[in-house]
Design brief:
Blueprint lengths: L6 E7 L2 E7 L3 E6 L5 E7 L4 E2 L23 H4 L6 E4 L7 E3 L2 E3 L11 E7 L3 E9 L5 E10 L4 E10 L5 E3 L2 E6 L9 E3 L5 E4 L17 E2 L2 E3 L5 E3 L11 E6 L4 E6 L3 E6 L6 E7 L14 E7 L7 H7 L3 E3 L4 E11 L1
Antiparallel strand pairs: 1-2, 2-3, 3-4, 4-5, 6-14, 7-8, 9-10, 10-11, 11-12, 12-26, 13-25, 14-24, 15-21, 16-17, 16-20, 18-19, 20-23, 21-22, 22-26, 23-24
């Protein structure tokens, strides 16, 4: 047990198993008891937490009684914000080869096993693992934090445990909100990125980006005329939307307000970046006009219509018999 340098703490949060990785600069709280979610990414010198926390708070799924359970509520009713691992289905409920997959199912709603793989003053690391229940997959991710570093390092692995060729969608549901995110915050991407609008408006009567495209990042045609700069976070009340960014020669983005965060990932595994924009214009379920949040989510596939749609358009991740895919990510605070 240490109170200095790199250190680990095990406990519970909202009745769920938690583990805290901490050093001189960062405190990162992970929930093995719920999807391996990251619910705190705190830069200690500035007291800045980068993750968005939903107004509905953290809910233990096994203790929550649904008003009317469905394949969307299974994720949304227990969504506390933060950062989720999405696998093997992204976005809307979908059916794949007889398996009915819920919104963003399956691993985000399951408890994960957790083991310590490094625990010294120089570095701490934990490995989380889970097996899906409707498809024959095993998913792992190792969180690593080194002494003196303002970067969280993650290595993920998805393995097909069957002799059958399969498909999947794999994503990192990273969402930003207050107090870090504010109007005027800016987003940087590599040169040459293009913007693909979602095929239909998700929140009538308006959206930020005109249908059609693809458009060139960051200034794009606005819905209803004119232009909108997607690199600048708008004021509360701006239209809700989702677009897909692609053309990454290297997988990275930076988002900055008073301080910033740089996220790097392997774009050969996750070639798309979903940009989810919910700035308070949605006044029905589940947001009720209460949120001002932005998701910048590296993904293997598009759109948000689920695995069957990604298979049909050729963007689904393919895993052959007993094949493994490895993904490395890094999130570093910029000051």
């Amino acid at each position: 047990m240490r109170n200095w340098a790199a250190r680990l703490r095990h406990g519970t949060l909202g009745g769920l198993r938690s583990v805290v990785l901490e050093n001189e600069l960062l405190r990162v709280t992970v929930l093995p008891g719920k999807g391996g979610d990251v619910v705190e990414f705190l830069h200690k010198p500035t007291d800045t937490d980068f993750v968005w926390l939903s107004p509905q708070g953290l809910r233990e799924p096994r203790e929550h009684l649904h008003g009317a359970a469905d394949d969307v509520a299974q994720f949304v009713d227990h969504y506390e914000g933060g950062w989720q691992e999405i696998f093997p289905n992204g976005g809307a409920p979908s059916e794949y080869r007889g398996a009915r997959l819920a919104q963003h199912g399956e691993v985000a709603g399951l408890p994960w096993e957790c083991e310590v793989v490094a625990d010294s003053e120089q570095e701490v690391a934990v490995r989380l693992s889970v097996r899906t229940r409707r498809m024959p997959y095993r998913v792992e991710k190792t969180f690593r934090l080194r002494s003196g570093s303002a970067a969280l390092e993650i290595e993920g692995q998805a393995a097909n445990d069957s002799g059958v060729s399969l498909h999947a969608m794999w994503g990192q549901h990273i969402v930003y909100g207050a107090p870090f995110l504010r109007p005027g915050a800016r987003i940087r991407l590599p040169e040459g990125v293009t913007v693909i609008p979602h095929e239909s408006a998700i929140n009538p009567p308006g959206r930020r980006v005109r249908a059609g495209g693809p458009w060139t990042w960051p200034v794009v045609p606005a819905d209803g005329g004119g232009e909108t700069d997607l690199a600048v976070v708008p004021e509360p009340g701006a239209p809700s939307d989702i677009v897909y960014l692609t053309g990454f020669t290297a997988g990275w983005y930076e988002i900055a307000a008073d301080i910033g965060l740089r996220v790097e990932w392997d774009a050969s595994v996750l070639p798309y970046l979903w940009m989810w924009q919910e700035f308070g214009a949605s006044t029905g379920y589940p947001w009720w006009g209460r949120v001002h949040t932005l998701g910048l989510e590296p993904f293997s596939s598009m759109p948000t219509d689920g695995l069957a749609a990604a298979v049909a358009n050729g963007t689904a991740l393919a895993l052959g018999p007993y094949e493994k895919k490895v993904l490395r990510l890094r999130a570093e605070v910029l000051v």
